[in-house]
Amino acid sequence: MASSWWGDKEEHGTPVVVKMDNPYSLVEIDGPGMDSSEKARRSKNAKQFKWVLLLRAHRAVGCVAWLAGGFWGLLGAVNRRVRRSRDADAEPDAEASGRGRHMLGFLRAFLLLSLAMLAFETAAYLKGWHYFPRDLPEHYLRQLPEHLQNLRHLPDGLRMPEQQEIQGWLHRAYVAWLAFRIDYIAWAIEKLSGFCIVLFMVQSIDRILLCLGCFWIKLRGIKPGLKAAANKRGSKYADDDDLEDGDDLGAYFPMVLLQMPMCNEKEVYETSISHVCQIDWPRDRMLVQVLDDSDDETCQMLIRAEVTKWNQRGVNIIYRHRLSRTGYKAGNLKSAMSCEYVKDYEFVAIFDADFQPNPDFLKLTVPHFKGNPELGLVQARWSFVNKDENLLTRLQNINLCFHFEVEQQVNGIYLNFFGFNGTAGVWRIEALEDSGGWMERTTVEDMDIAVRAHLQGWKFIYLNDVKVLCELPESYQAYRKQQHRWHSGPMQLFRLCLPAIIKSKIPLWKKANLVMLFFLLRKLILPFYSFTLFCVILPLTMFVPEAELPIWVICYVPMIMSVLNILPAPKSFPFVIPYLLFENTMSVTKFNAMVSGLFQLGSSYEWVVTKKAGRTSSESDIFAMAEETDTATRPAPRLVRGVSEAGLEAWAKTHQLDNKDLQLKAQAEEVTSLAAAIKKTSKAKPPNRIFKKELALAFLLLIAATRSLLSAQGLHFYFLLFQGVTFLVVGLDLIGEQVS
């Protein structure tokens, strides 16, 4: 029954109930005639709704507290990391000693400028000066001075203030900044980015051609064959079956010198010496030289004891120690080659201190020299015992697999030239002497001797199927120093070798390959455009949107190149995104090293021994390798893993040793305690450090990502965000943390 709302009479009706999705959320609209039971039920539902709200508020407060606690814990971790880094900087840091001082100063200035620009752009954004149509109306242009009328073609995401709005200094400053940005900064950035994009595409084409060459080699089964077998078919290549059908090369045992340069590498000396001494070659046809440059007396004593032990096993091995580390590794090798007895040897095999060759290494490499007098070098491939140790070693494995599987193999097959890797290779001593021997002028003595031998007409062979185990750097600090040496040395060598390359008598196309591809494209252009394009130009374009980089330059082409790099290591496909980001992160180190080597800066001739962890292959692999090894002299155990007393006693009981051999037990007792203590300390986790250049770039990229939000550049934001986080992780030395 309806009635007017101003009536005094109480009216009856039906109550209306509105139910929400939540069963506890109940809103009732009171109507006339509601009895006491309905009111009680409504009061109960209201209490339930109140408790639900309180529960949700409690959860929200807990979430906020959890986030605050996590942020506070992150700040505490960063603070502790900074303190530990300062404590670990007892040795002079490269940045403090001048190597990266100029680079760090540039990055700091760039960071401060980006912070100021972000504040300025944010203020302009809040005042509404950001959105505008692509083409400005004519009445806008008539209000502007003549030199600002080219603002008609500003990109989307900016708006020109009305003339009546321009009444304060901030408005005038913003308009002046727009004019200066378009007339000068955007033009310069566009020219530089265009140049870098051209270099980027040239390098990408070179990489694609290398991959196509490797694919053709795999498809056709092309491999370097033995000269005797290849001559029968008129080809210099041979398949696996052809190698077995060649001449009887089993009696070919020339005199081979095995050199092992090392310096304060007490974590790996024992394993390396053990593997080299077990190489299957007549004992009277080989000599092992342990070339020790250690300045640690304890390390010298341990290495000398290990050499004595194998000498008493019947291995022809000697220990050489230099009082002065002049010339680093090149000086060490040069000193060893000056010995009088070296003239009795025809070939020399070189193994760094962490390399573990298989017993059949010489039998797979030396026969390639027979009947091939033009061959100067046989290079084997590296394989890694710790490639799955942490994320850093996984990413290194991707790079080195591409280097050996693609670059070295393609250059070896089609050009008979590639850069010597410094170890796991066999040189013809005549080729070394004809090329001038080891020189101490750079930190890449391996590349130096390879280039000079190539200019003298010597040919190289790369064996992708012959692998030698070695160790990857497990800490970012060690990897960073290694990469600095590997990228500063080639530029220093390029300056020294360019006149010799021009004057050499090799064909013109070989000169062009050396200068344009080997040095400029792969050693200079790659770090230059990588750092300039992704670490300098890309952040700048966020503050100068008129010079925006295309999406395909930032995302599509780098992803394709990363996939091509990972093809030789297919198990690493899940790490394609971290690999792309990490390579951009390493560009700052490589660029700094390239500049220091090219312009002869203070750190271009700095050699820091890469820190080793002492990883070895599995026990089953070692013993299987040992069982297959024969010796030309008296029967002896193929494997002695260490100097432990229990192992020597068991070995003595098994082989009925005489008194002379039992003297090893006494020697082991003297060295065991010291070696055990050294191994225990070497396994201790090194302190983490702070890398300032990487942190500066991390904050710079994160600021640029924040600026990209103002102009709604989605993909640019995500790339800058992830790249900035990667720089942050690397800068805080978290990349080398163990994941297993």
Verbal overview:
The protein is α/β, with parallel strands linked by helices and 740 residues long. Among the domains are: 96-129 and 693-739, no CATH class; 207-226 and 253-599, Spore Coat Polysaccharide Biosynthesis Protein SpsA, Chain A, CATH 3.90.550. It has 23 helices and 9 strands. The strands form 2 sheets. Strands 5-4-3-6-8-7-9 form a 7-stranded mixed sheet, with helices on both faces. The longest helix is centred in the N-terminal third of the chain and has 53 residues, at 36-88. It is globular. InterPro entries: Glyco_trans_2-like, Nucleotide-diphossugar_trans. This is Glycosyltransferase 2-like domain-containing protein.
Helical percentage: 55-70%
Shape: globular
- In the CATH hierarchy, the architecture of one domain is Alpha-Beta Complex
Rg calc:
35 Å
CATH superfamily of one domain: Spore Coat Polysaccharide Biosynthesis Protein SpsA, Chain A
Provide mean pLDDT, rounded.
Answer: 78
Strand residues, percent: 5-15%
In order across it, which strands form the biggest sheet? 5-4-3-6-8-7-9
Main location: Golgi
Protein name: Glycosyltransferase 2-like domain-containing protein
Membrane topology: Multi-pass membrane protein
GO biological process, one term: pollen tube development
